Each structure stands twice: as structure tokens, then as C-alpha cells.
Amino acid sequence: MLSPQLRKKVFNLWTMFWSSGMTNPLVAIEQITYLLFLKQLEALDAQRISEGKASIYGVRSDCKLPHLEKSAECTGHVFCRWSHIKDNPTHELLNQYVFPWLRELDKTFDNLSNGEMASPVGQDIMTDAYFQFPRDKIETLKNAITVIDELFPQMALQGDDLMGDIFEYLLSEIQTSGKNGQFRTPRHIIRFMVELLDPQPGERLIDPASGTGGFLFSAIQHLLKRVTPADELRLEADGKPHRLRRGDAALEPYLAGEYFTGYDNDRTMVRIGWMNLILHGVENPHIARLDSLGKSFPDAESGKYQLVLANPPFTGNVDKDDLHETRFPRKAPNSKEPITTKSELLFVWLLLDLLEAQGRGAVIVPEGVLFGSTNAHKELRRQLLFEHNLQAVISLPAGVFQPYAGVKTSILVFQKIGESPEAGKPPCTNYVWFYEVQADGYSLDAKRDPRPAPNDLWDALVKFPQQVVECKDYHQPELYTERWRVVDNKTAKTFTQLEEKRGLVRGIHELFEELPGTPQAAEAYVVETQIPKIEDLYRQYVLAEFVTKGLLPEEEQTQSIVEGAISSVNRIFTAARPLLDMEVEQSGHKRFGHNTLKLCLDQVEEMLRADRVTLLAQAKEIVEQSTDTAEPAEQDWQAAADSIVREFAKLDGFNVELRALTTHLHQGALDESRSWAAPVRAYARDDAWTDIGTHDEQGKVRPEYVAVLKKQEIFAQDGTIKAAHLDVLDPDCIEANDFNLSAGRYKPFVLESQKYQPPTEILRAVRELEVTLISGIDNLLALIGIEDD
């Protein structure tokens, strides 16, 4: 996560671009991302060179790009390095030299990989990358480049994904600006869906509505978690991973772009998504601009992937003439008319088409997909249940997509089977597992403030693999707080021993080994060790004042002398304040060192004021025994204060709510079960059928009964039971309910015992309610001017 200091700098950067005239938030984020991207590229190139790869700034054959040297042959493109840009921040350099090189960067990666990881369908992703910063805002441009350069103390690839965090923060600015919010899926929901599918190394994943690439890089992070040592890995309360380790020889080949493919029909989103994956460590991302539902979408993509993850557009309609001709069902077997033009339905069919047999998927759908009554809605649900394995329907709260959408959604988790429909064949899905998420770790209002506990997502992840039902046990990780800080230039200057950790984000207890692990304990430790030193400094200064003046003060003079000394020492401590983080306090950012120091100073001052008599006695004794009347060494006092303040400066940083890597079982913690299951097809029991009944002792339907039903031809060719014969089904099964997949439809009733009330009490309560209702109606009639006849 971004520290409050970095967040403030990025916000200031956003403000610079906004004030320069870029009022379109998407244009502003794109321009900022280009500059962030250019900075990260130099670090990426250094990493490539260390691995024996060619530099992206090197000499190119048949190069037609402009060069600063005006040479007839390519001499390389070192002028595109960030280190050169920051020293020459001119509009001409960026517009005429850097951005033309940037527009061909995807080709450069393709060439350097010898075509092994070529971008899909040969698209020029960066073709439209133009520098749009106003030419007349050169000072603003210089300031912006300076801010970007200062975001990180050194240009190196760190385990901390700060560049990615900055990008995500900029995306959130799009959301809060009220524009283009549909481009961003909550990252904790994305991580939850990735965890549900649990990608394995080598499995190919696709998101046909990839936007900024959230599902793709989250899947990569999921794989990296596997090889990151547990003592290094940190998870925020919502699951965001930190300190992921790269370089595992067995895993690294599977982190290439070719295993993670994304498509989007918006060129800007494709470009931003491509850069986002670059910033997340994917050297040559496979993201392209294509209409995934359209005719141009390659046939070769069908049946190619083991995993699909998507949050496709909701409630949109597409042009039926642009739809792919074979991927989607038709209204009739020989009809060219598609069964629907609703994008939320078409995308689910697309996901099934993209998967190979036994492939798995998870998709967010609006609630209407689960119970819509059109032929297309019912046919999609029939196919999911009868021709594939619909493993789970996970209901999300309505506020998940706040503040820009309050639509109620659910997650469908499924496996592609692809069996052809056949009369009498049982459905591929036996049971559907339902989970009702009531809390997702954030408030469900427009603010979406963090609410780390309770969080049903962790419970759902534990119960999903075993399809646990009707269970009141609750699984939650332990939550704890650490205080992190960025080892920036100021920190490295204040604490020279941290120079080698410059650029890292670490807990204060890791940077300063003497500090305990929790912020509260760290503060208590510093207070406990520094209070005696502060008191001693004040006392020594007061006594030195007496000695300097050679006074034997009377008791009534002591107070003024003590107060004057306290003021002097306070000024000394004030001079040491630059060692502390003195940024303006805001949400998530508190001046921990300053505030704790102030409490200690106030405490010591009160102690001194209350101890004037003792100070007077000590002063008299010192004056009587001393002949030294030299001035107190002010620099010595400052050095002592600096040393104390430096200890309090160790407390500065920002608190981060973290979760343990494992969850704990809390038996019986729920009032009612969050999960249940419903059979797709369940036959109604008839114990009078022949002499044995329709079901055996275990409650299973007898095969001979089903054989009789087949002979009676009650099954349709699509595998379902004909409408005229639905009475053979248990009315609570999914097939008997029009394939309705709403979680609430199958939620078990919870019977609660109530205290017995005599009938006379109930009747009196009903009568009182009636009187209240009649009185209210009379008042309403009077308000609208109608009198009772």
C-alpha cells in the first residue's frame, strides 16, 4: 500500500496535471502513467541486462526513429532513459524523441524475445501513446518530473510493488472523480475470485474484458505467494500481498505474458492495462484491443484456456450483426438470429467457449442473470447446470461496487464439461453450493471504509473446496497491526545505518531491531527508555542555569527560573523537530513521533513544576560546592536533544492492518449458516409407487423408477423434464424452479423458539395495532383534506 507521504505526493501530481488543463481524468492518468512507466523502464532494463538480455535502449537494425545525435545510423536510445529525461525535462525531448520510441516499445519487446512472446493478434498497443502535456506549461512539467523522481529514492526493482500501488491509487482517483468508474473492479474481490480458482503454474488464463488487467496480475501474484517464504510474506487485511519474491527458477517461466491473456474493446484501457502488467513485472503482456463478442475475435481462442476470470460489462446490448456467428446460441436450430444481445449473458457463453474441457471459470454477473425469465436467461442457466458443472453461486452485498454502482451481483464458479444434451440424461451439476456474503471487509456505503472484521470472504474460501453447508462455524484470520515506513532520503539521512535499505518499505520493528513488533508496544518502549533521559536533560539544564548565575535563589524565585529553563529546553527540542515526520495529519497519517514526544515533554514539565523544592535544594548544594560559572554548552544540549528526538523519530510511519497467513476456526460463531446447497434435480418421493416406493432407504431415487419415467417420454431433448410433468420433481429443487439460481430461494428456514404468549395477550396486541393503524389513516385523510363521512 502507499504510505500517506507517497499518497500525498501522487495526489499533488494528479493536481498538477489537472490544473494544467487535463480535466479528463482518463487522459491525466494516462499521461502520469507514461512518466511512471518511463521511470520504471530504466530499472526494468537494468534487471534485464543483469540477466544477460539485450537493453531496450540499444542499437536497433533498420531503425527509423528520430535521434538526438542526428546520425545516419541508429546509435541507441539512451536519451529515452529516465536518468536523461529528468536532467532534460523539455517538451521537445518527450514529444519528438521519447514518445516515438515509446510507441514502438511493444515491438521492441517482441523483437528482443525473438517472437516467442509476441503480442496477441499482432496489435500495436502503444501506437496511440502521445505526449499531451501542454507545451506552455514547462515549469509544471519540470515539477511533475521532479515529483515522480522523488517518489522513490532509487531506481531499482523492489519486492514492494510501489509502482503498481501508485497506479492503483490513480485508478481510484478515476473512481472518485465520478467518471469511468466501471473500469475498476475492487481488488479484494478480484483476489477472492483468483483464490477460488487457485491457478497452478502453467495454466493459461484469459480475461476477455480485462480493463486494467486486475485479474491477470492478481493471478501472477497468487503464484508468487507460493514461492515467497512465509516469514517474508505480508498480507493486508483485505488480502493484498506484499514482498512477493521473484526469481524462482521453476516458476519464472510460467510468469511470462503468454500465460496471461487479456482483451478489451477500449484502446486506452488496453494501453493502460499493458503498462500496468509491465509495472507488475510481466515483461511482455498479452493484451490486445478486440471486441471479445465480435466477429473479429479469433476462432483459435476457443477451447484454448484452462482458466477464465472476468467482470464483464453489465446490462449492455450489443449489435446483433457484430456478434460472432458460432459462439452464441441462436433462437432456433437453423436461425441466424442470436438468442440475445444482452452482454451479461453473452459473456458467460463466451467464457465457456474459451475454456478447454475441464477448464474452470469465475465471473461476476448482475443478479438478473440468476432469475431472469427470458428464454436466453433460462437457456444459459440450463446449459450451466445440465451441460457443465456449476460449482457455486456466491452472493455479494449490493454495496460492493459503491460509490459508482449499487447493483446487486453474484459470482458464478463453474467447470466446463461440454456434454451434449440428451433426453433422460441427468444434469452434469448435481448440487449447487450457495454462499451469502454479508460483509466483505469494507463498509457498504459510498465511502467503502475498511471494516476488516468480520469478513465473510475468508470463511467462503475455506468452505468452498469441501462445499460445507448449514454450518455455523466461522473461519477468520487473526488481524494485527504493524507500522511501516518508507526508507526515503530523509529517513536514510536521519538514520545512516539504513542506507542499504533505501527505497524499501519495512516495519519499524524491522528497521530498528530493539523496537517491539506492535506500534503500541514500540511507543511504550520508546517512552519508557526516553522519559528518564528527557527528565535528566531538563533537570541538568535547570541546575546549570542556577550554577551559571551563581544564585542561591529563594523559594519564591524558583518557579520563574524553572519556567525559563523549561522554555529554553523546549526551544532546543523544537530545533530538533526536522528529525520527525511533521506532515499535516490526515486520514491514515499521524505524526506518531511528534505526538508521543509531546506527551513525554508535557509529562516531564509537570514533574519539574511539582518538584521545585527538590530542585531548589539541589541547586543550593551545587552552587555552594561549585566555582565554575562558565556558560552552558548550548551545542551539547542540542546534541542531547537530537539524540532523544531521533529515538522518537523511529516511531514515524503509517499503521497497516494485516492478517495472518492462516485462518482460525471459531466454532458456532455464526447466528445462522452462510452457506447451503440445492439439488439441481430431485424427484418427489412417492412411497406408494409399486410396492417399494420411488426412493431407497438412503433416500436415493430408484433407477427402475427413472427408467419408467423415460418410457413415459417426460424428458425433453435438452435434458430437462417437460413442463407438463414437473410434478414428478421435488418442488424445492432447482429444475422445478425455472432453474432459478438466487441464493435466497433455497436458503433454509431457521426456526427459532419463542416465549409462549397466551392467546389473550396476542389478541390485545393485535387490537392495539389496529387502533394505531386507524388513527394513522385518519391523520392522513385529514392532511389531504378528506373528512370522514
Overall 3D shape? globular
The biggest sheet, with number of strands, parallel, antiparallel or mixed sense and barrel status, is: 9 strands, mixed
Output the structural class: alpha/beta
**How much of the sequence is in beta strands?**
5-15%
- Could you name the ranges where pLDDT drops below 50 across 5 or more consecutive residues? 115-119, 154-159, 176-182
Helical amount:
40-55%
- Average residue pLDDT: 86
Number of E-state strands: 16
Q: Roughly how many Å apart are the termini?
A: 70 Å
| Spatial strand sequence of the major β-sheet | 5-4-1-6-7-9-8-10-16
Radius of gyration: 34 Å
Number of helical runs?
23
Overview of the structural elements:
The protein is of the alpha/beta class and 789 residues long. The protein is globular and about 120 Å long. It has helices spanning 4-19, 25-50, 82-87, 91-102, 105-112, 138-150, 162-176, 187-197, 214-227, 267-279, 343-354, 368-371, 375-387, 456-463, 489-494, 508-511, 519-549, 555-575, 592-610, 612-625, 634-649, 703-711, 759-783; strands at 205-207, 234-236, 241-242, 260-264, 286-289, 305-310, 355-366, 389-395, 409-415, 431-436, 440-442, 450-455, 474-486, 505-507, 654-666, 675-679. The longest helix has 31 residues, at 519-549. The N and C termini lie far apart (70 Å). The protein contains 23 helices and 16 strands. Among the domains are: 485-657, no CATH class; 683-728, no CATH class; 753-789. It has a nine-stranded mixed β-sheet, with helices on both faces. Strands 3-2-15-13-14 form a five-stranded antiparallel β-sheet. It is 40% helix and 12% strand.
